[in-house]
Amino acid sequence: MDEHLTTRQVAEALSVSESSVKRWCDSGDIPTVRTVGGHRRIPLAGFMEFLEETKRQVVSPLLPTNRLRDVGTRVDPVGELGDPKALFLQALKDGDENRCRKVLTTAYASRESMAWLADEFIMATFQTIGQQWDCGDLEIYQERRGCEICSRLLHELRRLIPEVPQNGPLAIGGAPAGDQYTLPTQIVELVLRENGWRTMNLGSNLPLPTIAAAVQQHQPRMLWLSVSHLEDQEAFVSGYAKLADVLPKETVVVIGGRALTDDLRPRLKYHGHCDNMQQLALFAAAMHGKRHTLNSSDN
Ligand code: B12
């Protein structure tokens, strides 16, 4: 997707008249640029700022997907040619939120898939951040600030995913007690929304009994658990078994995260384990009756 939108595309995405969009462009409410022919064009990053400021949500997807794939990955969001991941990494380390927004939105625009963005862009970039932190080339505050910036941008990207109708299936989830990681479970929520699920992200560091209480209260069709860190594996295995015992039979459990090692997983009962978000997208769509081919360019 070209990361500049037309007034017609924005009007359709928000289900408003094109003349309203043109008025917002001319009044400066929506950041706008002009083509040589004088046509209004709206940068995606600017559109996201407008959505954030006006607390609006797109009601229909921005563009039919089939026009998305011919953009390739070499983007030039800030007027400098460069590998987008390297640009994103540097912007995160510098704490430059606007540059992060430009690079991330352009990368999202190139594939319009949260799952792809999470696996190929965000996870990869944070792995490098982890390595640089681990060998002392990066200050802890830079890592934490990077997480905060990324989390805010994910909230903004959420507004680009059409609201799921109230009769859509419900998925709830989070990270267990002792696990302070918020990005993975925040991303799971976006991937599930993108695949037609209503979602309730309960956040991180949740004692398993309170997750059981949430399942009892809301009777979701799916429960997700993101497990990036375990203080006490044995306590988790016994606590998880108690949770599994009280789950309604309609609730399907999907788990993921770095702490779910090959030794630990066989000791847990669950319906699905995914290594990454693109697998989750396929699982979530299949559960929703939408079968995607496993052709790599499909998600
Ligand atoms: C950011 C970060 C933190 C932050 C997180 C802040 C936040 N707001 O989320 C905080 C400050 C909490 C943190 C703390 C620690 N961290 Co840390 N952290 C990281 C870092 C840099 C990025 C992790 C991240 O969020 N990545 C982005 C997400 C999207 O990717 P991901 O987690 O890899 O998830 C992918 C898959 O696992 C899967 N997935 C994940 N969850 C789920 C769920 C489902 C349902 C599904 C289907 C899939 C799925 O999909 C994702 C890909 O898209 C990693 C480096 C790295 N290599 O990743 C170190 C890293 C994981 N941390 C590490 C360590 C050691 C710690 C501490 C123990 C340090 C300490 N001594 O205190 C603490 C533990 C805190 C705790 N109790 O939880 C080590 C772990 C080493 C190891 N052997 O496992 C790493 C690898 C750094 C390093 N290189 O040493 N950390």
What does this entry show, briefly?
This protein has 299 residues and is an alpha/beta fold. It has helices at 7-14, 18-26, 44-54, 84-94, 97-111, 114-134, 140-158, 183-194, 208-218, 233-245, 277-287, and strands at residues 4-5, 33-34, 40-43, 170-174, 198-201, 222-226, 252-256, 272-273. A 5-stranded parallel β-sheet has the order 5-4-6-7-8, with helices on both faces.
Description:
The protein is of the alpha/beta class and 299 residues long. Helix content is 47%, strand content 10%. The chain has 11 helices and 8 strands. The protein has helices spanning 7-14, 18-26, 44-54, 84-94, 97-111, 114-134, 140-158, 183-194, 208-218, 233-245, 277-287; strands at residues 4-5, 33-34, 40-43, 170-174, 198-201, 222-226, 252-256, 272-273. The strands form 2 sheets. The chain has a 5-stranded parallel beta sheet, with helices on both faces. Strands 1-3-2 form a 3-stranded antiparallel beta sheet. The model is unreliable at 64-80 (pLDDT under 50). It binds cobalamin (B12).
Q: How many angstroms separate the termini?
A: 15 Å
- Rounded Rg: 20 Å
For this structure, the CATH topology of the largest domain is Rossmann fold
Structural class comes to: alpha/beta
The figure for the number of domains is 3
CATH architecture of the largest domain: 3-Layer(aba) Sandwich
Low-confidence stretches: 64-80
Count every beta strand, where a strand is a DSSP E run of 2 or more residues.
8
Main β-sheet, spatial strand arrangement: 5-4-6-7-8
**Beta-strand share of residues:** 5-15%
Helical region count?
11
Average of per-residue pLDDT values: 89
CATH superfamily of the largest domain: Cobalamin-binding domain
Q: Under the CATH scheme, which class of the largest domain?
A: Alpha Beta
Q: What's the SSE pattern?
A: EHHEEHHHHHEHEHEHEEH
**Globular, elongated, flat, extended or rod-shaped: what is the shape?**
globular
Biggest β-sheet description: 5 strands, parallel
Ligands, ions, cofactors: cobalamin
Helix content: 40-55%
